[in-house]
Sequence to fold (590 residues):
Amino acid sequence: MVTAPLKTNPELLPLNVTQVSSQTIEKSGETSLLPVLVSKVPGLFVTERGFAGYGVSGGSAGEVNIRGVGQGNKVLFMIDGQPQWAGVFGHSVADTYVANGVERVEVVKGPSSLLYGSNAMGGSVNIVTHRQKEDGVTGRARAMFGSFNTQKFALSTGVQKNKFSATLSGQLDRSNGNREGSAFWLANEFVQLKYGASRNWSTGGTLDMTQTRAENPGTTQDPLENMWTYMFRGSGSVYVKNRYAKADGGVQAYINWGEHKLDDGNTPGETPRDYLFHSTDYNMGFTLYETMYLWQENDLSAGIDFQHWGGHIWNTSKADPKEISSESSHHVNEVAGYMMMQQGFISNLINLNAGVRLQHGSTYGNVWVPQAGFVLRPGRESQFKASFSKGFRSPNIRELYLYPPANPDLKPEYMLNYELSYRQHFINGQLMIGAALFFIDGDNMIETVRVDGRPHNVNTGSFINKGFELEAAWRALPNITLSSNYSYLHTNASTLYSPKNKLNCEIIYSPGDFSFTLDETSIWSMNNNNPSGAKESYTLLNFRGAYTMEAKAPVTFSIKLDNITNKHYEIIYGCPMPGTTVMGGVEFKF
Fold:
């Protein structure tokens, strides 16, 4: 069952939701979640610039867009419902979204601002972490080695005794990268504690930390030397939840913080820069929510959200680190209340949904966010959804206060989303087909223009995105599964890194203790910032094989080959992606 958004019953939401299970994540062999989402979620795409790591600052990758909406942090990432984004520049940090210890990922395609406010304008991605579900101790350990001297290690374990449970996980990745000067390493640690105080009440907390260093060689047209970024990110939360026959909900307090240090590098032959850039940021707040079941087939959800976010930037001299320049510090407060009602009729044959959110920001005032739609179930294995929703994104601190284009009077960006979707199961669930149509009208986009000869951020941009998505999955035989998804996007804007066509096909064959996966991803007509205006198109073929020795402690040996045909392609213009790569590994379960 889909469990996000956590603030209400998602089965009755009229929004399009895709769930990626832990089994799918494990079979992919990936240590980052984002490549898995690209292949499994129609309409979602992520920028990459090389074999390992996404990085931050100029030339970084890891930008996520859904249905062509994403630039400027318009897709909200969460871990167990906790918002994750940097408080100064307002962007998500792709390298922190690791696959280790993840139970599932739930992607809402379309505005989630009714429940989550700003930054959920184009959609939301909730990473649900693993919770120990059985008494005793369980766990797994994995090691992988491969191309470009890449090494990946992961360990996760969980324990449960009576009302108490805990899970811990750690991950370490390092690679030389597919280009000289693109070395990368990452370490991640995660701890989760949970205590069931009674039949109706539970409490718990999480702590997630990531340290990473990424080098960036620039583009082939404009190469760089000595460009690197060191980053430390942390997030923590505590919560209390209740569950009764007539109501359930909870309260969660959280904080997300980071420290960044980077060298912007220099062109070959140029004198290296004499300073380093530093930033610290924070994003903290709380959410209080409750769903009441007032009468038959009725849910009434209401909540209050508060966020305080901001940060500090400065430069230090390489010769004398105590010498500080270009220092600036700012913060923003946001508070919101929302209410949503869902009413079922004729034994939930049809469910009507409507809600509204009022959000107040210290820099922009009030924003109203409406949402309405319905879910129709004409048969036991069929579902039809229709919805209208509004999404918005608050201007970040860089846009408001930093550097010459800054404008403290900026208003939020917003978009209106209209959507129809249909999903049907056949043959007792062995065959599934789905389709979705969408129309998106975006306005008030923040753009940099020339005012009196100077760059200035203003709310002047607009766009219209429309398209459709198709998906299917078929368990043809007990040991053969086929799946495919396709998305088409038409936009009237020059949107970067949003493919016009995206196709993924996969076949899994599992004879006995063996498992073989062959998948294909095709991209057509994507603007990758090529100055000539030429669009990027490519097809990738990938393979994974695994053998599991069933024993008291199962052991799995695996091999993974990506880009088997050695296709040359550039998602970001000037950053050639690797050719054929090989990774092999072993995993122990206990």
